[in-house]
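User: quick one, fold this
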Amino acid sequence: MRRHVKIKFVDFWPSFDCENNKFADALRLRHDVEVLPRDGDDVPDILFYSRCGCGEHLKYDCVKVYFTGENDFPDFNECDYALSFYNCVLGDRHMRYPLYMLYETGGALSPPALADKEALGRGFCSVVMRNSSNCDPMRLRIIDAVESYRPLAYGGPYRNNTGGPVAEKIPFIAGYKFNLALENSIVDGYVTEKLLEPLAAATVPVYWGSRQACRDFNPDAFINVGDYDSTDSLVEAIRRIDNDAEEYLRILRAPNFKDQEPVDFDSRLADFLDNIVCGMKRYRVRFGEMAVLHERRCVTVPLTGKRWSYRVMKLFSGRLGRR
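Assistant:
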């Protein structure tokens, strides 16, 4: 039965479109949806919130759904339901919905068709990266190891050598045979747009991250760093593929998804959200230890969520680490 559902989005990133997004669209398939203004005081039936901002969600007392695109685990003391990278099972409270689903997956399903000469005549390898201080050091070791073979083209803020950060990643990545698609860390299920983008750009990703990628995508379509026991053996494999046109084209032309179809996360999302609307069940309580934790967060999150406080904490933790 179709219902009228009022929803609101808070604590998402500034560019997030509250009216047009995967969550609102999934609900619209089966219900009449009213999206409340982000900056209004009206309380929705369902509040969607994420990890940005200063804890705006804490002031709402309604059904709450948390979405994270990063490798943090949802706090089920604060949310009734959650969408994240993880493969955890918690009844009807959680669903795995990776961040790359908010990107244009159709590009990876139908990448540009390149002639052999065009595909092989491109530059060697690109990297588009910002975070170098809050990531697993292995990420940087892979970059240095591959660059010991041939120079890399850096299109992001990190080590930029292309005249400044590129405005659009996919067209830049498309100019190179390979792309270093390296996650910030390896966490079960944590697969981001870093793999999706080079696949959409019709290049060969060198992927470092969760083994889940081999289930979300076709492992024949990328070089998986996890298949090699050292950076030396990885670089030797890249060297071999770089100099073997037939092998390179075999990987490049492999279907990006198993059975030519991506995992149907959007249908699963529609079912997940429909179940919430039909039940409107709340799992959080405001008694006992859960209430204490909530009260603490109402004080600490608005303070620690501010950019200046993050810089202070980062400076302080750096000094502690040097002792």
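User: anything notable?
Assistant: Confidence is low (pLDDT under 50) at residues 319-323.
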